[in-house]
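REVIEWER CHECKLIST
Item 1: Sequence provided? yes
Item 2: Single chain? yes
Item 3: Sequence as submitted:
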Amino acid sequence: MEKLIGRGSSKSMAQLGNMNIISIGELEGQLGVLKWPKFIAACEREFGDRINQIADRLIADTRLKAVFVSGPTASGKTTFSDRLTRILIDRGRPTHLISLDDYYHTDTARFDDKGRPDFESIDTLDTKQIVKDFHDLLCGRRVQLPSFNFVTRRRYFDPKKNIKLGSDEVMLVEGLHGLSDLIAGRISHGQWLGVYIMPWCKLLDSRRLLDGRELRMLRRISRDVLHRGATALSTIDYWPMIDRTEQEFFPQYLARADEYVNSSLNYEYCVIAPLAARQIEVSLRQYERGCLPGSMYLQNQSGYADLSQAIAAARDLLHACERIPSADRSVVPAQSILNEFIQ
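Item 4: Structure as written out by the authors:
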């Protein structure tokens, strides 16, 4: 994760707060009947407290009319934004949640030289329309926000998303590129708060076993299989596209943020690792038997961009997951950010 800090960045990872570092031995020590529920509650409480701290700032400063939540894939932006929105509304500050995913261009996706589509870079967004809509909202005008159908790759308009910001209301914008100079940078900084969220963590054995990037990969594997019909290998094979975007854009987003949220939960390794490992095992067995489906992310969906590299990465992840004690997903509280990846 340290690679997200570019040489020109004025921020350091330390400003994210303390890195969550835990060992396999410490995890195993928390697995008792009495200890485990308390450990989970403590992890969730720490994350919930961070959301409330940001809500406090927004309640106290009524000059802030917009919040931009940015961060790498599988960081929990959606759940964090949902929870922050509900808290602000409950505390008397009406908030409108806007997803940048609804501003995808409707034209055909671009592909790299290996046939992987680019769904990650800011060029995939209609930034001109985003800036216009946000400017109009902040000027008190009524705006019909778009929605996007990812199956048909067409934009449509829901009458329920025709909104206007009242004098005390907030728009909360969630998306990979919310903190881009092309979006947040077009608004006076006195009007908005930037939040950067990602898991910043290490799981240790005799050496480093997993870091935040690999935890996000496990989260994404689990979510992609559940909700997108992907295979574990297709997600891993697509990851170079994700890495490329993160290295290009995220150092500047991290530097532009006002608040930093560490979305890792120390107990989640015991839940997400066995779920993702199960899907990795399925993919590897399919490969060995010659019945592996093509990658849903590839242009022709009949192969993989770099199957040998994906298999090597999958085996490394599986080896790490096999070292981690397992816990059933039923232990995860209903409001946990982890549910974004396991339900």
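Item 5: Key structural point noted by reviewer: Residues 2-342 form a domain with the Rossmann fold fold (CATH 3.40.50.300).
Item 6: Recommendation: ____
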